[in-house]
Design brief:
- This protein is of the alpha/beta class.
- The chain is 49% helix and 14% strand.
- The protein has a five-stranded parallel β-sheet with strand order 2-1-3-4-5, sandwiched between helices.
Length: 491
């Protein structure tokens, strides 16, 4: 191409391209080609630094990183392939777009260009129309890279905010009830007692178990989680304790159970309320004797496991229905941690939204800056039957579908969006008189049920966790009140 023709190409392209600022490093040893490319790039709004060889270009790149590199493949000294590899080895090189100009057009040569880290290539002699297309593609990639980099920096900033405002071992919350959960996790980690985690599905029971394990003396040993309700009853014993070959139809080889897998560490049994009473007896023996017997085996094997159980069911009801053994019930609930449902800690929803937006933006490589006020208001007033897990799923669906950098009300699912908004509720017991009335009402319900919190919660029409919060907030000391309460009249 002649320089006269290049001027025409330059005018043609500069009239159609938005004059954005692109810092570009041009590496070309042929003077006339260098002037041509400089003219074309400058016409498209590029701030060009031209270098005749790869060594000097590398020094220029280290001094001042460039968003675009256009380089010839055949250079004196270090060739274009080696230069490209060295650029990619730098921290800034990850964000740089590289276009190689080459006179070689064999498939193996072009493959080597791409393997060296180039994003695109142009064959000589350069076709002006093709050059225009390839530069437009490179510029669009630079824009996308800038947007992703900004999003990545924002994600890091949001994560730092979350950590400073209420994050603990993967659990998120600054509410008083969640701070109590964090405190009890720390307490449980200091000992080796069996822990029972109570809470509805989606509240984060496994996160609690992992938090206890990671802060305990067993943190360097295995953590194994198993959902008892997800395994057929006939196979659960083998899954827990293992079996020997021939123990039952299909047992073609020996197998270790999850107790052995977790030896020295922590075993988390979710949905423990679904375990049948016969298996409860065997599990109780393992906890007491620290020995287990595989299905079909005649020998006992020692095992050292810290057990954490969880359920979304009311175990006291199962106990009354004789679906859970009394000795097993008291053995697994040595130390209880109660996770509140999301609807009972709505003040944590904004920080949870911030946390999930930062994580999901990174996962889906989308720059989602924030959420509209009316959309957040709707999230704050939704009952969340699926709890934190449902909130995460709703936000993920929105991020996948949206084409902007902000979640609006119309990006939310219909069932969340269509729910009528509630006015802000008046705080319970906001005055001293209200507080005293509420306190007497709770104490009366506890007395009527002989201090059974599950029964008292039913009388009050609230969940057991809500009652627990009321007892704490109203400073009700049950042990002291029991001593002051006269025995029931038996006449």
């Amino acid at each position: 191409m002649t320089l006269e023709k290049s001027a025409t190409v330059n005018q043609e392209m500069s009239g159609e391209s938005a004059m954005e600022s692109f810092k570009t490093l041009l590496v070309e040893d042929e003077a006339s080609m260098s002037r041509l490319l400089q003219s074309i790039l400058a016409g498209r709004g590029h701030e060009v630094t031209a270098m005749p060889d790869a060594e000097s270009a590398m020094e220029a790149f280290r001094r001042d990183a460039h968003s675009l590199i256009v380089l010839d493949l055949n250079l004196p000294g270090m060739d274009g392939l080696e230069f490209c590899r060295r650029v990619r080895a730098t921290q800034q090189g990850e964000w740089t777009t590289v276009v190689v100009v080459t006179s070689r057009d064999k498939p193996e040569d072009l493959q080597a260009v791409l393997e060296a880290g180039a994003n695109d290539y142009l064959s000589k002699p350069i076709d002006p129309k093709l050059l225009k297309i390839r530069l437009a593609i490179a510029e669009q990639r630079i824009r996308q890279t800038r947007a992703y980099r900004e999003a990545n920096e924002r994600v890091i900033h949001l994560e730092e905010q979350v950590k400073s405002r209420g994050s603990f071992e993967g659990l998120i919350g600054k509410s008083e009830v969640m701070q109590e959960v964090f405190r009890r996790v720390r307490m449980a980690a200091e000992s080796d007692v069996t822990v029972l985690v109570l809470g509805e599905s989606g509240t984060g029971k496994e996160l609690v178990a992992r938090g206890i394990h990671s802060r305990s003396a067993r943190k360097d040993k295995p953590f194994v989680a198993i959902n008892c309700s997800a395994i057929p009853e006939t196979l659960l014993e083998s899954e827990l304790f293992g079996h020997v070959r021939g123990a039952f139809t299909g047992a073609i080889r020996d197998k270790e159970g999850v107790f052995k897998t977790a030896d020295g560490g922590t075993l988390f049994l979710d949905e423990i309320g679904d375990m049948n009473p016969d298996l409860q007896v065997k599990l109780l023996r393992v906890l007491q004797e620290k020995e287990l017997r595989r299905v079909g085996d005649s020998r006992e094997t020692g095992v050292d496991v810290r057990l954490i159980c969880a359920t979304n069911r009311d175990l006291s009801v199962l106990l009354s229905a004789e679906k859970i053994r009394e000795d097993f019930y008291f053995r697994i609930r040595v130390f209880e941690i109660i996770l509140p449902p999301l609807r009972e800690r709505r003040e944590d929803i904004p920080i949870l939204v911030t946390h999930f937006l930062s994580n999901l933006s990174r996962t889906h490589r989308k720059m989602v800056r924030d959420i509209a006020r009316d959309a957040l208001h709707r999230l704050m007033n939704y009952p969340w039957p699926g709890n934190v897990r449902e909130l995460q799923n709703v936000l993920e669906r929105a991020i996948v579908a949206i084409r902007s950098d902000r979640i609006t009300l119309y990006d939310l699912p219909n069932d969340v969006r269509a729910r009528p908004l509630k006015t802000s509720p008046r705080k319970n017991a906001s005055t001293a008189a209200d507080r005293e009335i509420e306190r007497k009402r709770v104490i009366d319900a506890l007395k009527r049920t002989d201090w059974n919190q599950t029964g008292a919660a039913k009388i009050l029409g609230v969940s057991r966790i809500t009652l627990w919060k009321k007892i704490r907030n109203l400073n009700i000391r049950i042990d002291d009140l029991k001593q002051l309460t006269p025995p029931p009249d038996t006449h």
